[in-house]
Amino acid sequence: MTKARIGVLVMSYGTPESLDQIEAYYTHIRRGNPPSAEQLEALKSRYEAIVGGFFPLRENTNKQLQGLQETLNREHPEIEFVCYHGLKHAKPFVEDGVAQMVEDGITEAVGVVLAPHFSTMSVGGYVKRAKEKAEELGLNIQFVMSYHLHPKLLQALSSRVESALRLFEGAKADEVRVIFTAHSLPEKILEMKDPYPDQLLATAAAIAESVGITNWQFGWQSAGQTATPWLGPDILDVLRTISIEEKVVKVLLCPIGFVSDHLEVLYDIDIECQSLAKELGIHLERTESLNTDPLYLETLSDVVFEKAQGEGKRSYGL
Q: Which residues touch 251 (CB under 8 Å, ≥6 apart)?
């Protein structure tokens, strides 16, 4: 009996693979408007500061895709899962991934974003693009919208908090301020009743309960430079406030909105936040990124399989 084949569109933001691709990447983010020389230099300098020519996000994303495919096929040998990249701002784009599936003869697919929390402006945007291309090409595709409270995800994040707290030698748990962070989005999502902030707070609260910490709060990071306001307070402002007003000297950052080492973690936290923390006399640590943690890959495998099984009850008798 021939195995059923299910395509998995693994969607993420994308990144340039080398310094000479940054201009095209930045232009795509800016909807076709090339950056000024100053803007381009500013972004290049950030990449140079963290990677020196090596771009960890693309490598991490490749490993996550490969790890997910291996996990799905190991855990569900009755089905053949084939994973495809679908990137927002770099090749292969979301539409390219959908087209490649169809070219490969895939007729049933599941889309999942490498971001646990849903927003109409992030995950919703990926889904819209993939759906439109799939409808154009006749591909039946379903989507995982969020997985922010999956037990294995919470377990992986909680263990990272516990490990990082041990870096503060001799400190009692409540002496360390734990700050959960995620990528800021424009404030207008609040008017839209977008679930993004609530889902992030739910993840943070679940981790805090699991680890047994009460001294924690939430901060936003990596806001875009636009005329419209973004969600705050920004993590840099949070650090200044708790240092000056509360005399906090030990801080653990836990960027739960990111699943991989990339610019927002390696530059915005490890360089910008760390630099400010030194100025303020704060001992700052951060939790390790999920990257290819088996628990994260199992989380993705679980939610993809569950979605495939829902459709498969009709198509495959699962």
A: 176, 177, 178, 179, 239, 242, 277, 282, 283, 284, 285
